[in-house]
Every structure is written in structure tokens, then in C-alpha cells.
Amino acid sequence: MHSSPTAPFGRFDACWPAVSRPDLLAKPVATALEKCGDAGLVESVLVVDTDPEVADTAAFSEAYEVPLDLSANCVVIAAKRGQAVTHAACVALANTRVDVNSAVRKRLGARKASFAPMDTAVAETGMEYGGITPVGLPEDWPLLVDEAVAAAPYVLVGSGVRRSKLILPGALLARLPNAEVAAGLAG
């Protein structure tokens, strides 16, 4: 009999290899995991089923006893240079804030950078607001990962939907398409 894995932190009823529970993932997330050729890597991505009413970071942290320094947020950025708008994503620990106006803007070579409007973020990613994750983002988007996230043994991020979360090695985020580990991205 195959036993279920145990979450490395938090208080969850159960967790599973994410690839075995596509019902708990947004379609782009499930597709990204299916396409990954490294079975060991894919098996290291866990999913936990949670209450969507407490999906926002502070409420989730309290309800499931997940320290903010083990939880990471993925934010969608709209970077403008002239008339061109480029979308990107940034991942930072929940106890920090992404420096959009300086660090992100400069890294993206933009004149102006801001958080993308919610409807744009949802439409462009194919994920639910409050569940957007770096796994399964559009392949042409830059992905900036704060160095503290990449260094974490495990972090909790969205699953693309509000009702579940992924737990995965921070270093895995640095290996996603178009990912760049960025020092000073958040503070």
C-alpha cells in the first residue's frame, strides 16, 4: 500500500503529489506538471486541499499554522515601456513586499511597473485570483523569484485555484521557464 506524503509544515488533513490530484489544480498548473519530464521533480510538488474562504495569506497562515516565512506570494506585474505592456510575475515570501517601483521596474527594463489589474491577471494566467502561482504561467513571461524563496527548503504557493495550495522546494521555482533569481526583489 502506498502511503500519502506528509506536508513538511502546517496543519493539513492530507497532502498528495500534485500531479495525482489535477482536480485540485488550475488547468495551466496541471498541464505544466504533466509536461515536466523529471518525475522526481514532479513528485516533490505536493498539493493540500484547503478552505477557499481562508485562501488569502494572513487568514490562511493562521488557519493552517503556516509561518509567513514559508509562504510565498506570486504577483502579476504590468511593465510599460512606451506603448508596449509586458506581463511578468514575481514571487516573494509573504512576510515581505515586492519592490515593484524600483527593483522590478529596473529588472524588466520598464519605464513604469505596477500590479496588473485583477481581471487581466486572471485572464492572462487562466488561474483564479488569490490562487495565482508561478507553476504554469504563460511561457513567455519573465518570472522573478526572490532569493529568499529560492533558498527555502519548502514554500507554500497557490495552485491556480483558491481551494488548494502547492508545497514545493524553493529551488524548484528557480528552475521554472524564464525564472530568474533576483536579489533585493522584496524587502
TrEMBL record:
Pfam families, A to Z: tRNA_edit
Residue intervals of the YbaK/aminoacyl-tRNA synthetase-associated domain: 52-175
Gene3D superfamilies: YbaK/aminoacyl-tRNA synthetase-associated domain
Coiled-coil region(s): none
GO MF annotation terms: aminoacyl-tRNA deacylase activity
Name this polypeptide is given: YbaK/EbsC family protein
Species of provenance: Streptomyces telluris
